[in-house]
Design goal:
Elements (H helix, E strand, L loop, with lengths): L5 E6 L6 H6 L1 E8 L2 E8 L2 E7 L4 H13 L5 E10 L8 E9 L24 H11 L2 E7 L7 H10 L3 E5 L2 H11 L3 E9 L3 H24 L3
Parallel strand pairs: 1-4, 1-5, 5-9, 6-7, 7-8
Antiparallel strand pairs: 2-3, 3-4, 5-8, 6-9
Helix pairs in contact: 2-5, 3-6
Length: 224
Amino acid sequence: MEQKKITGILGAMDGEIEGIVSAMEGASRRVYCGSEVFCGRIRGREVVLARSGIGKVNAAFMAQALIREFGADELYMTGVAGSLGGLRTLDALVPDGFVQYDVVKPGDPDGLIDILGEVVLRPDEGMSSALAAAAGARRGILATGEKFVGSAADREDILRRFPSALAADMESGAVAQVCSRLGVPFACVRIVSDSGDADEYYDFVSRAAAAAVSAVLAAFLRGV
């Protein structure tokens, strides 16, 4: 008998997962090492959903947990990001590559993940293309680092080293790395909450997070 696939979904903050919890059927909740995890179904699909907490370490920890402890066979990440230029507030981005702009070591290219020998980590293209179609999203590079990008100087520094990056967040590159090492298909959608301005972020983060949730649910409705 074929084992049923389990889809993992990860968001850093409550607003990035709440609408998905509401859409789940028969959801059960538990706390795993400080993170809320919900198990249930969406349109008959087995889903395990978690709030990781903000930042690369939290996200990487929970990505591995969803895969190793909860049996996720594929993983989606949902949430918000800051534009680095070319994207407007509430635009959607489904990355076709991830870089970690805060990985810097003398003698190596910036962003080099030494254990993988790569700077740009790629998501699963089939999952990503379908997610982008459901979300009406742009494709491009997402830059990840353990810092809120809050000034023009921050944006310029990232673009100087990664000129093709469209947006920045604090989790997705780390999740891409975990999934790459474990051989688990991964896709991500990010909605732009700001252009590196804290006031703008607080004005739009709730709407952006809700839009990211809607994008994932729209993909599920299409049977992605």
